Amino acid sequence: MGNEAAVIGRVLVQSSEQTGQLADTDILFKAGRVFFGVGIVAFGMQSLFYAHSANPHMIGPPFFPVGLVWAWITGAIFCAGGVSLAANKNVRLMAALVGAVLAARIVFVYAPMLAANLHDPGPWTSGFEIVGICSGAWALVAISSAGGRLKHSLVVAVRIGLASLLVVVGVQHFMYAQFVATLVQRWMPWHLFWAYFIGVAFFATALALVTGVLTRLATAMLGLMFFLFVFSLHLPRVVGASHNGNEWTSMFVATAMCGTAWILAGSLGKNAYTRR
Predict the structure, then answer these.
(1) Going residue by residue through the chain (276 aa), what tens digit of pLDDT does each one get?
(2) Left if phi > 0, otherwise alpha if psi is -120 to 50, otherwise beta: which for 31?
């Protein structure tokens, strides 16, 4: 990973200091930025709905409510930030704000929860989902920044953050394969096979992120997988339980993760299929 900051700085995606925009010359990166922004806006809207109604069922993990004031602040930042990211405006500033809010949630909400519930799979899943989404925000900050040690550190942190999520959910796909199989749509065959297959895919992508081998291909396929999850898994569940905030949040998590994966894939450029 030693040259990743330089790669991202020079390949296809360059920042404009005058406009705060990114030159979206890679279609994967552009799609990823839009999907990520849409997911963040959706989280923001859920937070504002909760803040207005004080109904905890409006939003589910990993963004369960931690207080009305925090919900108003988070909702406002996520709505403004997500719209800016999707519209390619003030990307570095807004991605940093979104990333800071997500990082605060990791430190002050999920780290203590994990420490107190090490054997509970829920906080592991939700906490590392936040880590993965946070990685997408800081990836945009890194891509829109000038080169240097800080940029290199951000790139390394982003790759490790996303890889850590994939390892956690990959392990859970094997530990709780029977439950995961129940989430597969009934019209699809081989439910248990898909539970294991997706776990293997998560491990393979994590390995690619850590080693730098086939990283663009792996993250592009990861984004495609989350894209398919949105429409084949989560959307039907939302339609069947439209008043369930957990189902809505799960769909938005998949949307944001699709964006995160494609942001990384697009930032590496078309010639980044080999080790960097």
Answers:
(1) 545 444 444 443 444 444 456 665 688 999 999 999 999 999 999 999 998 888 877 888 888 878 889 999 999 999 999 999 999 999 999 999 999 999 999 999 999 999 998 889 989 999 999 999 999 999 999 998 877 788 888 999 999 999 999 999 999 999 999 999 998 888 888 999 999 999 999 999 999 999 999 999 999 999 999 999 999 999 999 999 988 989 999 999 999 999 999 999 998 754 332 333
(2) alpha
Whole-model pTM over 0.85:
yes
Closest CA to 230 of 213, 208, 250, 246: 250
Count the helix, strand and coil residues of the chain and give each as a percent rounded to the nearest 5: 75, 0, 25
- How many CB atoms sit inside 10 A of residue 220's CB? 21
- Find, among 151, 110, 160, the residue nearest to 130 by Cα: 110
d(CA 178, CA 191): 9
- Cα angle value 174/212/203 (rounded, 5°): 5
In this structure, how many other beta carbons lie within 10 angstroms of the beta carbon of residue 232? 13
Q: Select from 211, 100, 79 the least CA-distant residue to 154.
A: 100
Single-letter amino acid code for the residue at 101: V
Q: What are phi and psi of 221, to 5 degrees?
A: -70, -35
215, 270 Cβ separation under 8 angstroms: no
How many angstroms separate the CA atoms of 94 and 100, rounded?
10
The Cα 90–Cα 136 span in angstroms is 16
Q: What pairs with residue 199 in β-bridges?
A: none
C-alpha torsion 57→33→27→238, nearest 10: 0
